[in-house]
Each structure stands twice: as C-alpha cells, then as structure tokens.
C-alpha cells in the first residue's frame, strides 16, 4: 500500500440531529451514574445511606466531598 | 489507496461501547491502585475518627457506628465505585470524542483520544484537586456537605471551561509558541477567577496527622491519574482499531 499521502480517516460518524439527541441522553445517563457513585445520599437512589456507605471509600479516594 | 480511509466510519454505538469498556477496565485498575495504596490511609483515618468519637462519648454523630456496610463491604464497594465511575467517564469520553473529533485539529485519532482524556484529567481532576483537595474520613464537617458539594461541582465546571478557554485562545494565534502562551494564559485566567470566586474550605482538624493527610491526598491523586491514563490509552487503542483493521483489509485486497 503506497503511503505517499495521508488522507485523514473519517473515524467518527457524521453528526446528525438524531446522533446529538442520543448523545445527550447518554450524557444524562452517565452523569446520573456518576451522581449515584459520587454524591447520592439516598434522595435519588431511594436506598437510604446504603449506596453512600457501600461506595464510601471510593468517594474519598476519587476525591469528591464526603460527609 | 485513500479510498480505504474514506470508507465506513464506526457508529456512535460502537464508539460508546468501546468507551464504556475502556472505562470499566480503567476504573477497576484505579480500584486496584486505591485498594493497595489508599485503603491503609483510609483505615488509619477511620481509626482516628473512631478514637475521637469514643473520646466525645455519646455526643458523637454516629455516622460510622451504624455499620450499615462493614469495612470489608466498603473495601469491596470501592471497586464498584471506581468501576462504575470509570465506565461513566468512559461513556462521556466516547461521546465527547464522537461529537468533537472533527473539530480537533489533528489527523491522528490516537492523539485526539489522548488529548480529550488529558483535557478531562486537567479540567475535572487537577483543577478541582488544587482548590478542594480530597480529605480522608475524620476530616470534614457533615453540616457543610451540601455547600462543599456545590462548590466542588462549580470548580469541576470551571475546570472544563478553563480547558475550553485555553483551546479557543490558542486558536487565535498563528505561531506555535504564541499558541502555547495563549493556551496557558486563557486556561490560567479562568482558573484564577474560579479559585478567587469560590469559597475557601479547610476543615482539617489541627490534631490530624499531617503525613497521613499528605499520603491520603497523594493516593487519591494517584487513583485519578491511573483512571484517566488507563482510560485515555484504552479508549485510544480500542477506538482507533476499526480504522486500522479496515486499512489492513483494504491493503490485502489491493
């Protein structure tokens, strides 16, 4: 294969309205997961402090404020 | 030959899956680091917390005395926390890569992926870290948790804005050395404003051992460094694969 000239590969899909909407949904979902890991005190997860206590060490070591 | 490169691009779903996978792996690696390096410090801090609570008698807040989850459970939960957090960050990185790839001025996908991971490490880890360094158990007043959480989220947003400002500033300059200067200036101005506007928080008790605090903070920084290095490298390796495979296939058919 000759490599005299590098053509920039299209490594990502074309940006469409539908893709952006999907991306926004995914971002919201990812932020929700991060919230549950890092900040929830039972208000969203409805688990009381169980999730908070379970992931307590992770919060401290990931550097987010914890009690 | 160039046709191979203009062939099919991976879908968002394919990139997202790779991001989630790279993130999960990175999170578990960060968990291993946190478990080996960080947990002894957390244990030491909890010992101090419990000694303080016993000294204070019944007036202690009882936060840890309830034992909703035991210490062993919390050490297992550490991996759940870093794994989930890593996967979420991987999903966000893959999304940022998909949406921003064409705007990044590099022909290298690997550099684009590593650059985005580096920007995230700078914006959402290092900038918040210096303003609000992480604290071990036994440090921190439960009554101020809401205010501390809001301030923390604010500095995360400011960190991302600062990185963005640095990129925008660099693009206004033609020469490379002026681009670097402009990037640093744009980034530092936003960070400085954020640091000045947000309240200072220092709840470390005078009696808390300085070396333990230092060691804990280094362990915490190391955890995030492992997380984002592994995520950046892992995502770069996985996300650039389909293109390489395609190029290889094309090379065979030619």
Automatic annotation (TrEMBL), chain A:
Pfam family, one: CbtB
Keyword terms: Membrane, Transmembrane, Transmembrane helix
Bilayer-spanning residue ranges: 20-39
Highest taxon of the lineage: Bacteria
Name this protein carries in UniProt: CbtB-domain containing protein
UniProt source species: Paractinoplanes durhamensis
TrEMBL record, chain B:
Coiled-coil region(s): none
A Pfam family it matches: CbtA
Top-rank lineage group of the source organism: Bacteria
Keyword Transmembrane: yes
Keyword set, alphabetical order: Membrane, Transmembrane, Transmembrane helix
Keyword rRNA processing: no
InterPro entries, A to Z: CbtA_put (IPR012666)
Membrane spanning stretches: 12-35, 78-100, 112-130, 150-168, 180-198, 218-239
Protein name: Membrane protein
Provenance organism: Paractinoplanes durhamensis
């Amino acid at each position: 294969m000759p490599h005299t000239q590098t053509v920039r590969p299209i490594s990502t899909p074309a940006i469409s309205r539908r893709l952006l909407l999907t991306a926004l949904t995914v971002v919201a979902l990812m932020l929700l997961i991060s919230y549950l890991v890092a900040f929830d005190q039972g208000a969203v997860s409805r688990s009381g402090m169980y999730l908070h206590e379970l992931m307590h060490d992770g919060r401290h070591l990931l550097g987010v404020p914890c009690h | 030959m160039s046709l191979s490169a203009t062939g099919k691009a991976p879908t968002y779903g394919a990139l997202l899956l790779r991001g989630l996978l790279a993130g999960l792996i990175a999170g578990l690696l960060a968990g291993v680091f946190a478990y080996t390096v960080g947990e002894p410090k957390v244990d030491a801090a909890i010992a101090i917390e419990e000694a303080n609570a016993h000294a204070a008698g019944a007036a202690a807040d009882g936060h840890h005395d309830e034992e909703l989850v035991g210490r062993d459970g919390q050490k297992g939960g550490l991996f759940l926390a870093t794994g989930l957090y890593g996967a979420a960050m991987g999903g966000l990185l893959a999304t940022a890569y998909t949406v921003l790839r064409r705007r990044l001025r590099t022909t290298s996908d690997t550099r684009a992926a590593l650059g985005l991971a580096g920007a995230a490490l700078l914006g959402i880890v290092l900038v918040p870290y210096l303003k609000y360094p992480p604290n071990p158990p036994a440090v921190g007043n439960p009554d101020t948790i809401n205010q501390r959480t809001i301030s923390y989220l604010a500095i995360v947003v400011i960190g991302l804005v600062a990185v963005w400002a640095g990129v925008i500033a660099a693009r206004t300059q033609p020469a490379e050395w002026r681009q670097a200067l402009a990037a640093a200036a744009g980034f530092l101005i936003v960070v400085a404003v954020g640091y000045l506007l947000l309240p200072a928080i220092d709840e470390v008790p005078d009696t808390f051992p300085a070396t333990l605090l230092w060691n804990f903070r280094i362990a915490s920084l190391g955890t995030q460094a492992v997380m984002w290095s592994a995520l950046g490298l892992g995502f770069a390796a996985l996300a650039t694969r389909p293109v390489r495979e395609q190029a290889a296939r094309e090379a065979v058919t030619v």
